[in-house]
Write the structure tokens for this entry.
Amino acid sequence: MDILKLLLGGSGSVLDAMSQKSGLSANDVEAVVSKIAPIFMQRANENFKSDADSSNFLEMIRRSNLDEMKSDPQNISVAEGNELLGVLTGSKENSKTLAGNVGSQLGISADSIKTLLPIIAPMIAGILNSRLKASNLQGSADNGSVMSMLIQFLDQNKDGSIVDDIFRIAGDFLGKK
């Protein structure tokens, strides 16, 4: 499953909305997403592998609806995005640092990237929720089996790390094989 195609694919309305909110071109938005999505997926994986979900991350995932976000990207909740950012980055300061680091790598303003973070975070949660629904684990399974399934989804080549999987997917999406 191509994570970046799920995030940005389709009619282009998601890319357009992200471009409008950030003031970046569609190409720059794709570049930012290709850098941020793997980081967020890695952080989600770390959360799933921890002993407890003290942040209620699974509940946030279960509330996320990727199809709704893609059909009406202007209505992606920034408040929910910021709540998810708190889980995925740990703090507002860490989010600023992430935006600065990615901005310096890509030559893009950190302020523009900061406007994208609360949009990208709920979309990552929406992808994970779509995976839960596809596995019929949405409401009936305990958190342990849900987390196990999500870890398996994230680690596609089963080597214990999702970093290589995410970068492979990002490279495939951007045509860099």
